[in-house]
Specification:
Blueprint lengths: L1 E6 L8 E5 L8 E5 L6 E2 L10 E6 L2 E6 L6 E3 L2 E2 L6 E2 L5 E4 L2 E8 L5 H5 L13 H6 L24 H4 L11 E3 L2 E14 L2 E8 L3 E3 L6 E8 L2 E8 L10 E6 L15 H9 L5 E8 L11 E7 L3 H13 L5 E8 L8 H10 L3 E7 L11 E2 L4 H7 L7 E5 L2 H13 L7 E4 L10 H10 L7 H11 L38 E4 L4 E4 L6 H7 L17 E11 L8 H5 L2 E3 L3 E9 L2
Parallel strand pairs: 3-4, 12-15, 20-21, 20-24, 21-22, 22-23, 24-25, 26-30
Antiparallel strand pairs: 1-2, 1-11, 3-5, 5-6, 6-9, 7-8, 7-10, 10-11, 13-14, 13-19, 14-18, 16-17, 16-19, 26-27, 28-29, 28-30
Length: 583
């Protein structure tokens, strides 16, 4: 509590004592002004409606002028607007014609000691004489205010530091649409015990423009090596001033030694990025987005870290008031592993067209779980989304999870042209039969037989629908419906003449044409930046100077102008004959 004596020179016989308690207020501050709702009302047209405030921070009291019309003075010195000034007993604050004497700060005892030493004002005191009398000595035991001590001033902070967007005209804000950008971390949010969200802004501010579900590539330097990794954007373009990625710490495999490598970049982000850290990123990339295939009924299926692009799409759908019916199914190991749990529950409660279903696969001691349990199967799918046939399906998660969902949907005769999936690594490839048999003998995977499929249809009364025919396009890391697997690349007629020349490095590599150019470069120590290794991010693009290549999929990430200039994606390009690369 702070005790103040208010002196109005026009009413010298009406000196008022006021007690203010900022610590009891919501924001720990008391307003001063002529507005009736202020904590200290000064009735004068010279006083602004909200002239100033007294606040308590860390046990200390401060006065600040709130950009008033006529300003304020502290101990005879002009006060800068929105600047906190430390106040203490004996200080004088002048607001228009009013003088505010700080009598006491703290508990009420000993307040009378200071009051007894303040001389009573004479009735004949004029308006000009009052300030002089306030500056007269109060008592030998108090310092005379005639030589006022300068109020302690906190270092001024520019608005550009704490509210940068406010100092830029809206029309002057630049949009980040594509390319490299330096960003600064402003917040780190612990989503679970091993998952963190990193929130970034740009300096100067920009509006991050992307499609929900896309990803960015981080360019980092770790252990004196340049490393690039791609992460889905978990924030939404409907909140364009910040960009967020959500990263899971990767533990070492069980029973492994210290020499076993862990998730290099993900763990480095957890251990090294702090508020204020600056990072370079490139993007946005990817075609896994609800923008590409608008539909009024959506089914989002995710597991583990695959929730991040789904969260971006869900936030965007809710923020923009999209008239879409969304069913969001997420699979997590345990209740404490559910990323964005509270926000998802709030979205489900506030948006009637957003339906949430979560299943856990493990019991967690001390955690009660009353919802779905187990992995997603046809029975659970029918419970969660009985009308899944009528929905566009987006799937993201670990490869084993997506493979299981894909097989299940095909077995249910789901129209696969409405099925889209996203992968965080290279595209899944069919193993050779010998390897598959060996794998199945170790860990058999249940594949529904025709009899089981028919039983599902009988159980759910599912109509018979033909499986969608493949359009012949090659798979591009889940940005398109999953088609028939691409046939293996044919071996060149004369493999002995197949070679890749890296012009800048001066190296020539003889090969058989069965390995992508990126792999050949890494084997010879030729540095080519890479990230997804699946033809999605575009990080590994290089210009082809001579020769022909065969691509495993379409390089959709490249612009038409880049294709005309000869750029290729080295991670999915295979040499045919002699090929010269600008690397």
């Amino acid at each position: 509590m702070i005790k103040i004596k208010v002196i109005d020179p026009q009413k010298p016989d009406q000196v008022e004592d006021v007690d203010l308690s900022p610590e009891t207020m919501l924001n720990q501050e008391c307003l001063i002004g002529r507005f009736v709702n202020c904590d200290l009302v000064l009735d004068s047209v010279e006083v602004s409606r909200r002239h100033g405030k007294i606040s308590k921070k860390n046990g200390t009291y401060y006065f600040a002028d709130l950009a008033s019309r006529c300003g304020s003075r502290i101990n005879g010195e002009n006060a800068h607007i929105n600047q906190d000034y430390l106040i203490k007993p004996g200080d004088t604050i002048q607001i228009a014609r009013f003088f505010l004497m700080i009598l006491h700060i703290g508990v009420e005892e000993n307040i009378t000691k200071l009051e007894e030493n303040i001389p009573k004002l004479e009735e004949s005191t004029t308006q000009r004489e009052v300030p002089k009398r306030i500056e007269e000595p109060l008592s030998p035991q108090f310092k005379s205010p005639t030589i006022p001590e300068q109020a302690a001033i906190a270092p001024p902070i520019s608005p550009e530091k704490y509210m940068p967007v406010a100092v830029v005209e809206p029309l002057q804000l630049q949009r980040w649409v594509k390319g490299e950008l330096a960003v600064r971390c402003i917040d780190i949010i612990d989503e679970t015990y091993d998952v963190r969200t990193f929130r970034f802004v740009a300096d100067p501010p920009v509006l991050f423009t992307y499609k929900p579900g896309q990803f960015v590539t981080l360019d980092l330097e770790i252990n004196d090596e340049e490393v690039s990794r791609s992460y889905s954007i978990s924030s939404t373009p409907s909140r364009p001033h910040t960009l967020e990625i959500t990263v899971k710490r990767v533990p070492p495999p069980p029973n492994s030694g210290d020499e076993t490598p862990r998730g290099l970049v993900s763990n480095w982000l957890h251990e090294n990025v702090t508020v204020g850290s600056k990072i370079k990123l490139d993007g946005p990339h990817g075609k896994f987005t609800c923008f590409a295939n608008p539909c009024q009924k959506l089914l989002l299926i995710s597991a583990g870290s695959g929730i991040t692009p789904m969260m971006s799409m869900s936030r965007w759908l809710c923020d923009t008031g999209a008239n879409c019916n969304v069913i969001f199914f997420h699979c997590a190991r345990s209740p404490r592993d559910i990323i964005f749990r509270q926000e998802l529950e709030l979205m489900s409660a506030r948006h009637p067209n957003f339906h949430l279903a979560v299943s856990t696969t493990r019991k967690e001691p001390g955690h009660t779980w009353l919802s779905l349990t187990g992995r997603l199967d046809a029975t659970m799918l029918q419970v969660v989304a009985p009308d899944f046939y009528d929905r566009t399906v987006y799937v993201c998660g670990p490869d084993a999870f997506m493979e299981s969902v894909n097989q299940m949907m095909e077995s249910l005769n789901f129209p696969m042209q409405n099925y889209y999936e996203e992968s965080f690594g290279p595209p899944r490839k069919k193993r050779q039969s010998a390897e598959s048999k060996q794998k199945d003998s170790i860990s058999p995977v249940h594949t529904p037989t025709p009899t089981v499929q028919q039983n599902w249809k009988d159980m759910f009364n599912l109509p018979a629908r033909p499986v969608a025919e493949s359009n012949g396009d090659s798979p591009v890391a889940a940005s398109k419906p999953v088609p028939t697997p691409t046939p293996p690349l044919s071996k060149p007629a004369s493999s002995s003449k197949t070679a890749v020349v890296f012009s800048k490095s001066g190296k020539e590599v003889a090969c058989d044409g069965e390995e992508p150019i990126l792999n050949l470069a890494e084997q010879e120590g030729v540095k080519i930046r890479s990230s997804c290794r699946s033809g999605v991010c575009g990080t590994c693009k290089k210009r082809k100077l001579e020769g022909e290549v065969k691509g495993e999929g379409e390089p959709d990430v490249l612009e038409e102008s880049e294709l005309q200039e000869g750029y290729i994606l080295t991670c999915i390009s295979y040499p045919i004959g002699r090929v010269v690369i600008d690397a």
